[in-house]
Structure formats: C-alpha cells, structure tokens
Design a protein that fits this description.
The structure is a single chain. With about 80 residues, this protein is mainly alpha-helical. It is about 75% helix and about 0% strand. Helix 2 packs antiparallel against helix 4.
Length: about 80
Amino acid sequence: MTILHRFGETLRQALGTIPLEFVRVLFVASLVLLLIWILRLPRERVVPENGTGRWDENLKLGASLAIGIQILVYLIM
C-alpha cells in the first residue's frame, strides 16, 4: 500500500464519521445563504439597462424560485 493509499483511506474514514444530517444542514444552509444574496442584489444588477419594464426582466424572481424549490426538495429528502 502506497502513501497515497494510506492518506486516502485515512481521509475516507475521517469523512465517514461525519453525520449525514450535519452535511444536509450545511448544504441547505449554503442554499439559504445563496437565496439571501440573490434577494439583496441591487435592481441595476438584475434588470437590463434598456429594459421595457416587463415583470419577467427582473432575474431575481426566477433565481429565487429555483433556489426556493431546491431548498424545499432537500428539506423533504
């Protein structure tokens, strides 16, 4: 067994001790932080400069909806 095999086995055993619920919470928390960041973006960043003012030009709506659905899916699973 080479040193890389030993290192890989040690790393695998160490990561195997982390509870999956903890990993799930961290993953959902990262999605929530991403949603907060999206919602805090200024309007100038998410709407085209020469927009017509239509409701679907604001990219926050679609991005928030997509992230929200992902959060719900991972909370249910």
